[in-house]
Amino acid sequence: MPELTDAQPTRPTDATLLAAVELARAALLEITTDDTIGEVIGHIDEGDLVVSLLFDCLMTGYPGWRWTVSLARVDENSEPKVLETELTPGDDSLLAPEWVPWSDRLLDDDADADDTDDDESDDDEDESDDDSDEDAEALDDDADDSLDALDGIDFDEALAAAELNPGETDEAEADTDHSAPQPPTRSRRARRP
Q1: Do 153 and 161 contact (CB within 8 A), yes or no?
Q2: Considering the entire predicted model, what is its pTM?
Q3: Measured between alpha carbons, how far is 57 from 68 in angstroms, rounded to an integer?
């Protein structure tokens, strides 16, 4: 907004717009209920023939917020019209934290994880080498246990059996394709109105 200088006279706020409280309240009733609208707590002069009236917001969970209705007139002789209605925060209102894109949040989590890993590695250096050797042996044992489920299976034999009966594989694939749910077919007839 341009700064006022001594050459520019200050103009008074449009009294007709300030008096249009009932029009502003009626506009608010289109977006909220009457029990959430308080008294007029002020106004903002937005410029020539435009004023925003501020109503106290009585909704639970919105302390310090206010209903704002912007009103305008085309010229000095016209009636006020509603430009917009909205719920806006006041100076003391509780606001949500600034939104951070997910990609930035992931980067922050990765950095935090790296910091945690560094802290853990410092702690690990303090432990004795005997503990780390025992941990490595336990990991090797766990890896061996996962392979125990495959003991006794001759993969070469299974592959050779599949090559001896190639038709059975094709039939099995055909059966699985036909047993799967199919999308409904569309009629080619035009629908009548």
Answers
A1: no
A2: 0.49
A3: 9
